[in-house]
Write a structure and sequence with these properties.
With 248 residues, this protein is mainly alpha-helical. The chain folds into three domains: 10-49, no CATH class; 56-169, no CATH class; 175-248. 76% of the residues lie in helices and 0% in strands. It has helices spanning 10-19, 22-38, 42-49, 56-67, 69-90, 96-121, 127-141, 144-151, 177-247. The relative contact order is 0.08.
Length: 248
């Protein structure tokens, strides 16, 4: 029996897979992998079977990419402008007002998409999901790899933006009072520890000096005693020699 025909358009099959409701994803993924295996496309089958089921937040973002692609495009454009403005700010070519404007545009695009998600998802939406979706969209806006996945509707995980806050790129935030106090406490603790170390070293040196002095005293006493004994022995020898001469 000849092998079944290869899946004609795998990318289209994957688009359809990620567009399914979440509760249908796993079965449809495994069915697609089985079809690929029967068509002697073992590598593609293994790759498809390893695909992870999207989280609820990632699925919601993927749904927005299909339902309101123009709003997603606006978010990605706002994210691009924000990245460029941040880079110019680091180079000293953009001021705080420009960064604030770029941030406002990016956050506005996120709010529009979250509002659309509230309408699109209906009863399935929760405040927790919307909050996590907000964070994921903010992260996607400044991450090019995630943007490609979102445009294709194939995100699998919720994301969190990392890095510097945009306004901090232009003007360093002043240290908070608690940070200043903590730094002062740490400095005082270090000074006290150093003082304790120096005092201990001084005590050790003083004790060593006393030991050396005591040893020197003992040596002097021993030397004095030896000299006395030598004198006494010399006198005894002289006396013995004198007595011997007298007897002669």
């Amino acid at each position: 029996m000849p092998p079944l025909a290869a899946v004609p358009d795998l990318e289209r099959e994957l688009d359809a897979l990620y567009a399914l409701p979440l509760n249908e994803f796993t079965k449809a993924r495994n069915d697609l992998a089985s079809r690929l295996k029967r068509a002697h496309q073992a590598d593609a089958a293994a790759a498809v079977r390893s695909l992870r089921k999207p989280t609820a937040v990632a699925w919601a973002a993927n749904h927005l990419a299909r339902a309101v692609p123009d709003q997603v495009a606006s978010l990605l454009e706002a994210g691009r402008r924000l990245r460029e403005t941040q880079q110019r700010a680091l180079a000293g070519d953009a001021d705080q007002a420009e960064v604030a404007e770029a941030v406002s545009a990016e956050r506005g695009a996120v709010r529009v998409l979250v509002g659309s998600a509230r309408q699109e998802l209906g009863d399935r939406v929760t405040s927790s999901l919307l909050d996590r979706l907000d964070r994921t969209l903010q992260a996607v806006a400044v991450d090019e790899a995630s943007q490609q996945l979102l445009v294709r509707g194939r995100l699998t995980d919720e994301l969190t933006a990392v890095g510097f806050g945009p306004l901090e790129l232009v003007q360093d935030a002043p240290p908070r009072p608690d940070e200043v106090a903590r730094a002062a406490r740490e400095r005082l603790s270090a000074l006290r520890a150093n003082a304790r170390r120096l005092a201990a070293e001084a005590r050790t040196a003083e004790s060593s000096a006393h030991d050396v002095e005591r040893a020197a005293d003992l040596l002097r006493t021993e030397a004095t005693q030896n000299l006395s004994e030598d004198d006494r022995a010399a006198r005894e020898v002289a006396e013995a020699e004198a007595e011997l001469r007298a007897r002669r």
